[in-house]
């Protein structure tokens, strides 16, 4: 399913006219590209739930909290999001790419993926997908895009 999401994001992101394709045609196009129908349906459902979150239909378990509160991850979340992923989410909050709501959207969408193999690079793509259509988050999206495509020639310590 994650491969379908990546393909959709990379293929259609720069051509919004293509994003208005009906779901049946899109499903057929993805099947012709070699994706399994079950993965296509799961990916499209994932995107629909993301759209719901972005429109403010926040799940009841995502309550507003004090901005100084510490996010405690469940065992399931900690298993999916390793230390580097959790550290990266905290970093994104500190540099104001993510806030409470967008962080929770990211975590919600990560947990909805049907994969056991998830790493920091995958997380960066999920963050980018979450930020892509949120009005007013253009600068956060641009910052995240720079972080994703940044080529590190080495670390300075």
From TrEMBL:
- A Pfam family of the record is DUF494
Classification via InterPro entries: Smg (IPR007456)
At the top level, the lineage of the source is Bacteria
Q: Which family does it belong to?
A: Belongs to the Smg family.
Question: HAMAP family given for it?
Answer: Smg (MF_00598)
Record protein name field? Protein Smg
Q: Which organism is it from?
A: Hafnia psychrotolerans
